[in-house]
Amino acid sequence: MPLLKQIAEQLRDADNFLVLAHISPDGDALGSMLAMGELLDALGKKVVLFNESGIPLRFEWLAPKREILTRLPEEEPDNLIVLDCGSAERAGELIAPWLKTKNVFNIDHHLGNPMFGTVNWVEQRASSVGEMVGMLARKLGVPLVGLLGEYVYLALISDTGDFCFNNTRPETLEMAAEILRLGLLPGPFHEQKQSTGKLSQLQMRGTVLQQARLYADGQISLICFTRELFEQTGTGPEDTEGLVNTVLYVNGVQVAISLREEEQGIKFSLRSKSSTNVQAVAFRFGGGGHRNAAGGTLLMDMEQAKTTMIQAVTEELANS
Ligand code: 5GP
Ligand code: MN
What we know:
The protein has helices spanning 3-13, 27-42, 96-101, 129-139, 146-160, 170-181, 186-194, 199-210, 227-233, 243-248, 278-284, 302-319, and strands at 16-21, 46-50, 68-69, 79-83, 103-108, 119-122, 213-215, 220-225, 255-261, 266-272, 288-290, 293-298. By secondary structure, the protein is α/β, with parallel strands linked by helices. The longest helix is centred in the last third of the chain and has 18 residues, at 302-319. The two termini are 38 Å apart. InterPro entries: DDH_dom, DHH_sf, DHHA1_dom, Oligoribo/pAp-PDE_c-di-AMP_PDE. This is Phosphoesterase RecJ domain-containing protein.
């Protein structure tokens, strides 16, 4: 039986679920989790939402009607639905014991997902996990209307860069069209999603862009966010979102690297134009992601991280 049908039937047959997505959730993680909550509501199921690191400030406008727990609930669920987690570790530490003992639906679209679930539906061609939740809703006869539509749409636009990236497929746009037909207004939705930054954020980003550099004959662009800059400007890791895409679109650049100093090590984000596989680079350093967007953490200081990443990306460029 096709997996989609099998999962749809299993969701219909089960009673209670804990739904979660990866830590430091992005628009796909949050969108797919909230959409799954709405879908299970529509089916009359008992649902708890969980994310170990909580809802980031830039998504507070979503104001979900159901609390997203940052601790495990006292009442143990029978089923876990794990969304957008390319590996079990991405789900966080608190949930790890339950991943071994519960019935786990691993629903994801990352390359190299190690199939840690009881049931594993990993669709690398799907633009986003939100698109996969939308497919499930269709299969279960639940229309993508109201909040369910909004949450799926948030996931679609987040992971496709507003329908610009390679992962935008005809099915993605057909799903977006269906959501618009059912009433979502893209203009106001987009304004709400984007209007979350402060002036200090823009100014900090301006400083980072001024310090951006090119390497490998202009094929690599690099930006760095230091803790010192965050302190000076009253900003933080949240304010870095998406800037790596800006430096990818310098003429001639094939790969953009963003490095962010964290308490432990350097968080790296990689973006590439079509031909270069940055997932392969991230994977070498224990990270992961997709062909054109990947990330991970380096346990070293900023200077070492710069040298390490520039070298690794240069090697990958030579292979592609
Ligand atoms: P970002 O650069 O926006 O943090 O992430 C880009 C892509 O890489 C996303 O698909 C994300 O799930 C993946 N990614 C980011 N950081 C990590 C990591 O530490 N480990 C793994 N496995 N994937 C990551
Ligand atoms: Mn995703």
